[in-house]
Amino acid sequence: MAEKLKxxxxxxxxxxxxxxxxxxxxxxxxTRQTIVALEQERYNPSLILAMxxxxxxxxxxxxxxILSE
Amino acid sequence: xxxxxxxxxxxxxxxxxxxFVFFLAIFLSGDTLATWGDNTRKTIMVAxxxxxxxxGDIVLxxxxxxxxxxxxxxxxxxxxxxxxxxAGFIVTLVYVFLFAITLYTxxxxxxxxxxxxxxxxxxxxxxxxxxxxxxxxVFFYRKGGL
Lengths: 69, 146
Fold this sequence. Notes:
- The structure holds two protein chains of two kinds.
- By secondary structure, chain A is mainly alpha-helical.
- Helix content of chain A is about 55%, strand content about 10%.
- Chain A contains five helices and two strands; from the N terminus they run E-H-H-H-H-H-E.
- The mean pLDDT of chain A is about 95.
- In chain B, about 25% of the residues are buried.
- The interface between A and B is medium-sized, with 17 and 15 residues.
């Protein structure tokens, strides 16, 4: 069965920070469209981008990304 | 909202589709194929058309150039670009293969191929490659991520 990478980016960004998608994108060095694609779980980020997002949202990678079947 | 990269791919797809349509209109009208070598007017028209195509690419790069501090491209754009180029390469490969085989099949009995078809292949190849790569880019952008 194919495994899918789910994430909590939207929930954590809205719940724990006041960052907009554009602000988060600027901080991690990607486009706003990439944050949109990530939040809609239509794009799997590189490890570097994932770690940058986790750092900006002040959470661990394990909390931010979940591997589900 | 479309990203700058997607907009650029979309406009390039339209641009090269127009170039292709006008190219077909010039090349396949009248007796162009039979008299290609002597038809200076049409040769110049086709050359001008392709200059317009490549010129449009240059203009787009200038219009959509990165402004200071602006992030216009990231790893997702690179990923989409790579996949679009790979898919476009396959389409171009299939096009050249089918074109060559069709030419052979059509002219097998005579044993001669009108040389103008080689010019047609050379020019159309540029259009097919550009259209397929940009169309796949737009498709992958619309699909979301990768």
